[in-house]
Amino acid sequence: MIEIRIEAVYAPSEDVVARLIEGEMLIVPLTAGIGDLENELYTLNDSGRMIWQLLDGQRSLAAIARSLAEEYEAAPGEIEQDVLGLVEELVKRSMLVEVSAG
Amino acid sequence: MDQGYVVKRNVSIQPLWGEKQSPLTSLDLELTERCNNACQHCYINQPEYDSQAQTSELTTVEWQDVLRQAAELGALSVRFTGGEPLLRDDFAELYLFARRLGLRVLLFTNARRVTPELAGLFERIPPLEKIEITVYGMRPESYDAAACAPGAFAEFRRGVDLLLEHNVPFIVKGAFLPPYHGEMEQFEAWAATLPWMDKPPGYVTLFDLRGRRDSAARNLLIKRLRLSPEQALEIQKRQGAHFIEEMQQFCARFTRPAGDQLFTCGAGKGGCVDAYGRYQPCMLLRTPELAYDLHSGSLRKALQDFFPHLREIKASNPDYLERCARCFLHGLCEQCPAKSWSEHGTLDTPVEYLCQVAHAQARFLGLLAEGERAWEVVDWQERIRIFQQGGKGE
Hints:
The structure holds two protein chains of two kinds. Chain A is α+β, with helices and mostly antiparallel strands. Chain A has helices at 46-52, 61-72, 76-92; strands at residues 10-12, 16-21, 24-29, 40-44, 96-98. Chain A contains three helices and five strands. The longest helix of chain A is centred in the C-terminal third of the chain and has 17 residues, at 76-92. Chain B has an eight-stranded mixed β-sheet, with helices on one face.
């Protein structure tokens, strides 16, 4: 079980390449071990795409959740759950790395 | 448990955008026409050390620009081919550049120039497509003779061993000249031991004439090396049930009369950039007036403004209109503007050899009876339906 802290800062791993094509966010494995089958790519759903674009290695997950909650006038708790859920999935797949200390 | 924010997609069976397509999904890059094999049957090869060809090739920066444009247009993959693409000194640089743009890379090679460094690179940064290696013989004597290159077989085997050692996925296909057909069994047995071969290997059976129409003497030689339609069919039959199944699926989807429209294929939707920066509608079609010069334009402009006009080109050759335009084997037959051009210098001249090959195949598949001419068949839809449902004459 990976523990994701809402105060932590994350950035896309250098082991993947993210591409936005025709409105779809694709995560293409760059190094071995991320995706091991030819013809397989990863796409993000709508929530995932919006969150990914804010994962810049500067802002904490909490700041990202606040920013999205303001933009979409949504309940901060709900957005936080989406952010934590996405980050957990991406970290498990080695597509995202924590850059904050500790 | 994952919440489905990230979805794994197999893009070969699940297209990403449904009906909404990006302007480009894949692109062929013919990095060089030079090859370290000098196969007499090859439609394109130039000598390995041809300095004129080498100096005319796109530079590293120019290829990088093409790759960047392809990625910006939404391409998911590129094919690096040639000639022998590994002859480019900047191959690793171009490969890395493509992969860092998020492109998958399909590499066509003879594997002779695979080095420990290159195999290690493919291991660390996988191409995400199985490398495809063409094999010309299973013994040094036969391979080297077919490739007209002493020592070639040893280099090919060393390259293959390096890929195996580094666990880099690849498949093999055969291009055997008639004197070496006896080695096919050994080739197939070896191929079956490779971990990534999920079916028997395919073969290049119909040697194309020179794509640039650059040598009448070479064309004569290629014609002499060609198999008879029956011999070509025998090689295809080596794939057993796979061949029949593929033909059933293929015929159901693609086989029907095309009328007088010449370009009914995918030409101009993906296309191929040749070694010198000319963007061709497909890898084979080298008619100069149908290629777009990227030195004075872009991939996007070619796709938007130049290639769509191909769909308006109609056949006018009476022989073509009488036969090919009405023939339900269109699709199964390899007749196309590119083959017509390399054989005859026009886009709409029937290629007799391909017609004979298609008729031999169709007879074997039960789509034609002995003596029938496919363009005269009226009940072709019914014949394809029966074939698709499993009926096949042998």
